[in-house]
Structures are given as C-alpha cells and as structure tokens.
Amino acid sequence: MPLYGTLKSMPLTDLLQWLGNARVTGSLRVERDRVSKSIHFHEGSVVGCSSDDPAQRIGQYLLNRGQIDEEQLREALHLQEVNGQHLGSLLVELGALTAEQLAMLLEAQAEETVHSLFDWDDAAFRFEESDENPAAFPVSLRVEDVLLRGLKRYDEMRQIREVFNDPGIVLQKTGKEPPSAVLENRMGRALWDLIDAERTVAEILLQVHGSEYVVTKFLYELHRSALVQVARVKEISTVSPPTVQPAPPADTPPTQPPATVGETTSAAPAATVTAPAVSEENAVEDLLSDFNPEIDLPEPALPRDGAPAGETGVVSLEDSAEHSLEQSLEKARKLMAEAEYERALVILDRVYREQPGDESLRRLTAEAEAAFVEKAYRHFLPPSKVLALTTEMDQLEAEDLSPSEVFMLSRIDGTWDIKSIIQIAPLRESDALRTLKRLRENGLIELKDP
Fold first, then answer.
1. Which of 409, 414, 437, 438 is nearest to 425 (CA)?
2. At what angle do helices 429-441 and 359-375 cross, to 10 degrees?
3. pLDDT tens sequence across 175-194
4. Cα distance between residue 26 and residue 22, in whole Å
5. Are residues 123 and 205 in the same domain?
6. Residues 166 and 144 grouped into a single domain
7. Domain boundaries, position 16
C-alpha cells in the first residue's frame, strides 16, 4: 500500500524517522519544481539515492568538489555515450580519481541528496514498497545519522541566510589577506577569485557548479572574518517570455537529436541541532575541509532545484490568472499541438510550482521538454555547431543577464560545440537550450561550423 502526501502535512524529519523505525524496504520519491529525488531503503537503512536534477549528478558533484575539471567531465561523458559505463567508473579509468575516492564520494553524494530535501517543506512525496535498488553503487546510511547531520546543516543555513538573504548579493574584498589555506586549495582559490564586486552569489554558485550550503557557508565565513563585505544587491534578471519570432534556423540541422545528457525557508523541521562554535580565526581554514573529499565532510545541499535562482519565467496576465490544473494542462496541450513547446513549458513550470506531484502534470511536462529539445536541436541549435560570442565578454556587463545566461556565455570560447556546453552545464537540458535560444535571439551569440 503506497504512502503519499506533502511535507507540509508530514515533515521530512517525521517521515524519515517513521520509515527508519518501520524498517521498510522500498523507494521514497519527493518532488518539487520539476525536480524529483528518490531515497531507496532496505530494512530501514538508506542504500541509495537518485535525482533528475542535473546539478546533482555525479559529474557536477565532482566539479563542485574540485576533483575534476570541465574538460575531464566532457571527455568522460563522450566515452559514456560510446560504452554506457557509469560515469564514476570511467573517471577512475581515466585516472581522475581512485576507486576508494569514488566510493566515498558516492556515499557523500547520496547523503547530500537527502540533506537537500530539508528545505523542501512544500514538496509532494510518495513511498512504495519494492525490493529493487536502482543505484549503481549501493551505500549504507543510518537514518539517525542522516537526520542528525541534516538538522545541523538546516540550523546553519538559517544563520547564513540572515546575511545572504538574496541571490543578487554582490561581494567585494576588503583588502585583508586571506589565510594561505584558501589560496592553496583548488576550490577555495576559485571561489576567492570569483569575488570581484561584480558577480552575484547566484552567478558564483553556477560558475563553480556549487551548492548553496557549501558555497554560501564558505562566503559567510569570509564575511564573518572581515575578508569580504556586501557591496550591493543586484536585481536578478528573470527569464524573458518566449518571443513571437522563432529563432533563426540553422544551416545544417542534424538528422537525429542527441540523447538527453544524463545521469527563503518557511516551516522549520521538528528539531534543531546547533552546530559547535568555531573560532573566527580558524573558521575559513576549517571550512576548506568541505572541498577535500578525504576529510569527514559536512554534506552540502543543492541550491534551488530546477531553474537557477531568480529565473521563474514570465507569463502573460492571462497565463498568470488562477486556473485549475486541468484548465492549465489543456491550454498547454493546445500549445503543444501547435508546436509551441516553449510557451507550453512556461505554463507547466508555473503549475508545477503550485501543484507538485501530479502524475498527469509530470508526464505532460516530460513530453513538452522532450519535444522542445528535439525541435531545438533539429531546427535552430544543432549540437555539432560551435558557439561564438558576437562581442567581447567584458562588453556584456551592461546587458540585463540572468545567472544562467552569464554561465552559458562564460563557457563560449569559439571552440566548444553546443553539445559539449550543454553536457557540462548544471542545468536541465531544456533550460540550457532555452537559455542559448534567448542569447541567440538577442544577438549575443552566433553559430559557426566546426
């Protein structure tokens, strides 16, 4: 008998505790904003986790940890398409990390998936009994340990958000020299270099393929140690509505679209675990353990799942009016029948935020995404085309760009093709293509033959 409901009616802490005490075997699926995450149990222990959020795939996780770079990820993903191996195993074969490191990182990633749900008070859930564990590399985590660390992180995030309460916050350095440990650490140095009095916190998160917990905690400690200060709060650009004019067709569309690449908190949890105090003098050095997989890590959580911070889409007044679920689905179906897949996705995105967990909504959204991706690759963004900027990057600062647009522009160097950029982006394939489509329609990028 399946168990289902919302995390408003049954908080995550109560749900996990109940499943652990009942020693269940099966899968718990939690869904919000077009993102679905699953926790797999065997006799009350967590034995695996999965997510369809691109930012939480193992490749993005390793980028965030500084274990691999984007070129290594691209090479491994290319090999994965050829032989179908697990991405982690391929990276071991390529020498990017050891088998022991992979096993440890996969366990940390599984726990992170659970921890990322602690902010999801408005999500829908469904538990079904099953003996299957789809995880390629099973893990073993006690629910009690997961809850303890998850509640500790939740308590820390409440403190961090008192300072970093807007994704548009822009930081600048104070002139005080950072500890040597920051500059000697790969990820610590990358974050330090990105603080330039221009980039927002949301842009920094995307640039390092990072998570809200690890990155903002690092920035919080820099701020608390007077190494950085808030320069201003920049208004985050939202995604523009689909334009009436279609994107210009490409010269040579592919015969086949490529397969999908893959792999402000309200109600608090039932309990709170206060983190031990850290002296201000050593806070930054201690925090660097978050980027070192050989140290016992506080597990990071992903930033807002689905579209990046501030990118919620803009719809017309008619679309913004209150509609029943069925009315909205019917309107989306009509648009899809007219091949207006992007406009249909704008409607479905809004409905998904309002009513997560509906099976008919999930199926229609997946259908619209797949149709849009196929149309984009076939007609105006062929995967083999090389992207190039139409102007210098430093001249784009005056443009009103969203964080995802800034990220995609920063990866365009005139040599990488569309497929490669999509593969390494911490965005859903449809969202990444919608971003590139807007940039091309606005005349900021152009397509070239390889």
1. 409
2. 50
3. 999 998 888 888 889 899 99
4. 12
5. no
6. no
7. 3-149
